Amino acid sequence: MMKKYTPLFLITAALLVGCANNATSTVLESGTSQVQTRQMQSRVFDTNDKEKTLRTVIATLQDLGFVIDKADLTLGSVTATKLDGYALKMSVTVRPRNAKQLLVRANAQYEEQAVTDPKTYQAFFTSFEKAMFLTAHEVD
Predict the structure, then answer these.
(1) Distance of CA 32 to the CA centre of its chain
(2) Could you state, in order of their start, the residue ranges of all structural domains in the chain?
(3) Which of 1, 16, 55, 61 has its CA 20 to 30 A from that of 87?
(4) Does the reported pTM lie above 0.85?
(5) What's the confidence (pLDDT) of residue 136?
(6) Residue-wise pLDDT tens for the chain (140 aa)?
């Protein structure tokens, strides 16, 4: 009776191993692009005021036409959606890099696909950097 199931077991095991190898090679092949994407998505700012930085993130997203879905000061995250004929989601996290700096990382998705176009991140960070400058100099 055990011999009937052995070929089925071997075929299933071979398929699972094949899938695992494909997933591993895909991750390794995309390693360089993942690093480049992370560099596009991240900026370091010389401040340790997490709350003010998150408020500036929210204001910047709203200025760019996004609607804030969720903001969490404790987690340091803001999620927003832009519904201008398409559904672009942006998640921004703010976390300490060291005692004097914060790391701001934006992650955009369009229809569940990661956005890898640098223009999307450049537009956000250009507006955000201007807003951070004005906030630091207390300009309304």
Answers:
(1) 17
(2) 34-136
(3) 55
(4) no
(5) 81
(6) 444 555 544 454 444 444 444 443 444 444 547 888 888 899 999 999 999 999 999 999 999 999 999 999 999 999 999 987 778 999 999 999 999 999 999 999 998 888 888 999 999 999 999 999 988 877 65
Residue 54, burial from CB neighbour count under 10 angstroms (0-12, 13-18, 19+): buried
Annotation: CATH topology of 34-136 = TATA-Binding Protein (3.30.310)
Query: 1: which residues sit within 8 A by CB, 6+ positions away?
Result: none
Position 137 scores a pLDDT of: 78
Buried b (16+ CB within 10 A) or exposed e, 42-53: bbebebeeeeeb
Helices H, strands E: what count in the chain?
4, 6
Q: How many CA atoms lie within 13 A of 114 on its CB side?
A: 10
Dihedral of CA atoms 116, 118, 123, 124 in degrees, nearest 10, equals: 50
Residue labelled with tokens 């004097």: 100
**Is residue 102 a contact partner of residue 47, using CB atoms and an 8 Å limit?**
yes
